[in-house]
């Protein structure tokens, strides 16, 4: 078959998919970029070009910088917890024990709960007056009296990150579990013969095998966590005292509460640029796993 | 293969059927109005559904599709739909959005559609809810302010036979109730980082004779505006305000009060009926209601204008039917019939024994509070101002930041609002 003939065919076959991509990804992207250089208002008159004004405003806005730091903290805590709990769970589920299949199904459940439902459920659990979390901690003697979890600016963001981790750790656990199953068992036997203890076996045999998959999934989770919006919107709406105002929440507020599309778009572009760093890390991790 | 054929045949059948339906002559019954309401406070979802059914029965050919969202999502739903150009026909809107919606043509000017005779028959505070720049952008519907609710039993046990007339008397009664160990935290508010906090704050600003803006410039950091926030912070420090108030919305306030865990609560009209409902409350028959207190030498009572209106959305193609629906919902007959969760906009209703029956105390409080409702600023950029103030109030209530520093910081930010 001649090469140029197949090339025409390739484009013909790719065409519909490319068109759809252009319509749902490229167009909004270009439109947002354009909006970020204007003073556009939702429902307002025609927008005019204002150059870098919105970006200068965003960079000078202490609220935006504070929100960026909060978002970074949220991402690190949530993804860190997912890595720890996820790997731990995967190691447990890899062991043989009666009812293992049942437990594996059980573990996936949090991940299957829709985000909004998860957030609403945890808001009830963490309620300061009648939440079951307080009841559990009081009855086990860990706390002396009921306390507020989402109403305390010092810990509200951490609580939201923990709830996010609870929902997403199963994904990490299952990716790692799949990687664990591909580790040749004779490597463990060899390690045992060499006198390696459990910790040494984990560090020298298990970890190198699961690391590529783990990095891929953690990078993916970091990208998602960085854009966090829905769980914050439902659980705390940015409060108390701005403690959970993440960058995506700020974009939402500029756009839909203040109707200031220009500034909102500029914030969104900055966030997209920052996420692209994470996306690059993800792609590098993917390539490493591919070559592995 | 047979399966494929069968499904093909089914598909074809369905296709023919839909085309036939499409060809049927369009009947008048096809007109559907899309209306958006809120889920909490004021009229219940059941009330709105039953009013709407009655309207449809009287207007053959018009159907109303109802959507209910939480108050916290209402503004954003309306503006998103309006900006997309395929929005609702009828929208419930808050008094603080009127300026913004009018300026952006999210609502239609209905001044000409409203009968002149209505002007004198409806409270002025109700009209101001829907008025911007001298034009009326719909009909007022929910005439509401925050009342002081008190638990008569707890007050009596502490030796008080009347509700407090001033905010400082409220604080001293609360301290006595706390000292007697009747409840841990006598007062509960809705100070969550939301509009609800601004409504409580506004009530106090009104009591202390403060201002939000003076000649277009922020003024809440001075005088009454500052004293209002100092009162809030002071009541937390004294241990008389439930510290969880800082994460509560109105429904949380209702639950705490209905559970008998608070002696005082600031809330909208709807709590009176619900706190007296045995299915919802443990304090049935003990609920007292009065206008929010005043401040000696400055005010005798205080009230915030928390009213809401119904308007025709700017993008609606069915103005006439949409306004007919609004006129029906806001009519005196309908409002008198459903006067348990929200009080009518019509002055004459308040002297009607049928409306007052079973809620005489509430009506008496309303007659005093409604005429003195204090407005939040009616400016197009209200959302920005409110968000800035919410942050300032919360930072003063949660941290060591003094009310003065928090409000001055907010004023500096608000001065930049276009």
TrEMBL record, chain A:
GO terms for cellular component: plasma membrane. InterPro entries: MetI-like, MetI-like_sf. Its main location: membrane. Keywords: Cell membrane, Membrane, Transmembrane, Transmembrane helix, Transport. It is found in: Cell membrane. Residues 68-282 form the ABC transmembrane type-1 domain. GO terms for biological process: transmembrane transport. The chain crosses the membrane at residues 12-30, 72-93, 105-125, 155-180, 201-223, 265-283. It comes from the Bacteria. It is a multi-pass membrane protein. Pfam families: BPD_transp_1. Belongs to the binding-protein-dependent transport system permease family. PANTHER family: BLR7065 PROTEIN, SPERMIDINE_PUTRESCINE TRANSPORT SYSTEM PERMEASE PROTEIN. This is Carbohydrate ABC transporter membrane protein 1, CUT1 family. It comes from Arboricoccus pini.
From TrEMBL, chain B:
This is Carbohydrate ABC transporter substrate-binding protein, CUT1 family. It is found in: Periplasm. Keywords: Signal, Transport. It comes from Arboricoccus pini. Pfam families: SBP_bac_1. GO terms for cellular component: periplasmic space. The keyword Ribonucleoprotein does not apply. Belongs to the bacterial solute-binding protein 1 family. Its main location: periplasm.
């Amino acid at each position: 078959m001649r090469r140029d003939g197949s090339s025409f065919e390739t484009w013909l076959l790719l065409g519909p998919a490319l068109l759809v991509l252009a319509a749902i990804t490229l167009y909004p992207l270009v439109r947002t970029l354009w909006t970020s250089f204007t003073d556009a208002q939702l429902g307002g008159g025609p927008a005019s070009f204002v150059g870098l004004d919105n970006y200068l405003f965003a960079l000078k806005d202490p609220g935006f910088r504070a929100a960026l730091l909060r978002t970074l903290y949220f991402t690190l805590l949530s993804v860190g917890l997912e890595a720890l709990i996820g790997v731990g769970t995967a190691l447990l589920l890899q062991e043989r024990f009666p009812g293992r299949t049942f437990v594996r199904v059980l573990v996936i459940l949090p991940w299957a709960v829709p985000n909004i439902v998860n957030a609403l459920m945890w808001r009830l659990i963490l309620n300061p007056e009648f939440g079951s979390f307080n009841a559990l901690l009081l009855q086990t003697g860990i706390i002396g009296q009921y306390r507020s979890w989402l109403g305390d600016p010092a810990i509200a963001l951490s609580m939201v990150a923990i709830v996010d981790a609870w929902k997403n750790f199963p994904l990490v656990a299952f990716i790692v579990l799949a990687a664990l199953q591909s580790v040749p068992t004779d490597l463990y036997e060899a390690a045992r013969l060499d006198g390696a203890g459990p910790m040494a076996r984990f560090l020298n045999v298990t970890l190198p095998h699961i690391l590529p998959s783990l990095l891929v999934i953690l990078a993916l989770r970091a990208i998602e966590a960085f854009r966090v919006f829905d769980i914050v919107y439902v659980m705390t709406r940015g409060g108390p005292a701005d403690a959970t105002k993440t960058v995506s929440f700020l974009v939402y507020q500029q756009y839909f509460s203040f109707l200031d599309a220009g500034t909102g778009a500029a914030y969104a572009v900055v966030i997209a640029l920052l996420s692209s760093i994470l996306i690059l890390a993800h792609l590098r991790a993917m390539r490493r796993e591919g070559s592995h | 293969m047979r399966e494929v054929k069968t499904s093909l045949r089914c598909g074809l059948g369905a296709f023919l059927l839909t085309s036939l339906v499409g060809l049927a002559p369009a009947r008048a019954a096809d007109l559907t109005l899309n209306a958006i309401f809120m889920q909490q406070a004021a009229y219940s979802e059941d009330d709105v559904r039953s009013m709407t059914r009655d309207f449809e029965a009287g207007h053959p050919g018009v159907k109303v599709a109802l959507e209910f969202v939480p108050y916290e999502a209402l503004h954003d739903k309306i503006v998103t739909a309006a900006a997309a150009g395929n929005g609702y026909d009828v929208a419930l809107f808050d008094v603080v959005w009127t300026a913004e919606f009018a300026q952006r043509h999210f609502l239609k000017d209905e001044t000409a559609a409203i009968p002149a005779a209505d002007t004198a028959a409806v409270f002025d505070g109700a009209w101001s809810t829907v008025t911007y720049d001298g034009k009326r952008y719909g009909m007022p519907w929910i005439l509401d302010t925050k009342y002081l609710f008190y638990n008569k039993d707890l007050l009596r046990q502490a030796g008080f036979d009347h509700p407090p007339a001033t905010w400082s008397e409220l604080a001293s009664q609360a301290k006595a109730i706390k000292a007697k160990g009747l409840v841990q935290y006598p007062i509960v508010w809705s100070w969550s980082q939301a509009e609800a906090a601004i409504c409580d704050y506004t009530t106090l600003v009104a009591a202390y004779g403060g201002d939000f803006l003076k000649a277009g410039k922020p003024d809440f950091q001075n005088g009454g505006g500052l004293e209002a926030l100092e009162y809030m912070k002071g009541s937390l420090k004294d241990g008389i305000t439930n510290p969880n108030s800082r994460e509560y919305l109105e429904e949380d306030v209702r639950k705490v009060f209905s559970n008998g865990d608070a002696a005082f609560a600031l809330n909208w009209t709807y709590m009176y009926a619900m706190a007296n409902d045995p299915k919802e409350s443990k304090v049935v028959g003990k609920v007292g209601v009065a206008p929010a207190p005043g401040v000696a030498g400055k005010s005798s009572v205080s009230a915030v204008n928390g009213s809401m209106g119904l308007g025709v959305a700017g993008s609606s193609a069915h103005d006439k039917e949409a306004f007919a629906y609004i006129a029906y919902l806001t009519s005196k007959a309908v409002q008198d019939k459903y006067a348990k969760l929200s009080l009518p906009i019509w002055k004459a209703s308040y002297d009607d024994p049928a409306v007052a029956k079973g809620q005489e105390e509430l009506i008496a409080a309303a007659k005093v509070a409604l005429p003195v409702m204090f407005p939040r600023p009616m400016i197009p950029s209200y959302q920005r101002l409110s968000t800035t103030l919410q942050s300032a109030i919360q930072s003063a209530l949660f941290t060591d930041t003094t009310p003065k520093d928090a409000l001055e910081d907010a004023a500096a930010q608000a001065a930049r609002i276009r």
